[in-house]
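subagent[fold] <- orchestrator: predict structure for attached chain, return tokens only, no commentary.
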Amino acid sequence: MSSDNQWSADGEESPLSRLIRKSRDSPFVPVGIAGFMTVVSYGLYTLKYRRDQKMSIHLIHMRVAAQGCVVGAVTLGVLYSMYKDYIRPRFFNVSKK
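subagent[fold] -> orchestrator:
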């Protein structure tokens, strides 16, 4: 067996450095994660004070709110990418990076 077929972990990056690199590529991913975590934590906090609302209805509302935060962040990210790639170079004569 040759030595160039062996797997080595030297070239791998840590999960934190990968998250930092990915957040530089698409800056709205951390915004979506933060929105999701905020809605989930708020939902868990208000779980105690839901009064006469059924548990399933409360969980459905929290799921929809959390998904709304993530979809909103993805939409903003797509719009930002479109602006950066198409609109800004055309009107402001900026070169792509």
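orchestrator: received. Logging for downstream: Residues 8-51 form one domain. The chain has three helices and no strands.
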